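Quick start: read one record
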Amino acid sequence: MKNWRGVKWETALVGLGSNVGDRLVNIASAVRLLGKITGIRPGRVSRVWRSAPAGYRAQRWFYNAAMRIQTNLSAKALVTGLTSAERTMGRQKRFRNGPREIDIDLLLLGAKKSRSASATVPHPRMHLRRFVLAPASEVAPAMVHPVLGKSIRALFRGLHNGGAANVLKPSDQARFRSLVAGR
């Protein structure tokens, strides 16, 4: 899709996670913050899922969601914007796979593939993680992983392990939607 200035907009998929503080507030705040970044047009947001931590297990369970966006940013610029949003929200670097106030990951950027120190697209482990694929399949089921050549829906259906992930109860989903709307 091109805007009136001829700039090409790509569909991108972003993963959101939190296990520190009020996890619903953190994810809703991230959704609202991403909508304020120049070069990002917010799209559909998944329901929130609860998942066991990967890697370091002695921590609180995560809440996860996925967001489909439109962007005219490069992978590097988009990752820079996502990292800036994490810092704005108070993310503290503790240790690998440790607790996080917010984690915002670029999962897919159209059909682009990029591997650099600043941005790897598609996300190298997304296809192995239920907490990524479950919410992603709600907002971008037909998006195709450009390396594996499979849709998000197919990756999710074919996942045999990938950890526990369960959708939150309806009252929590309603609270989340209200927080995203700023109420």
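The beta strands are 10-18, 40-45, 49-51, 62-71, 103-109, 114-115, 120-121, 165-167.
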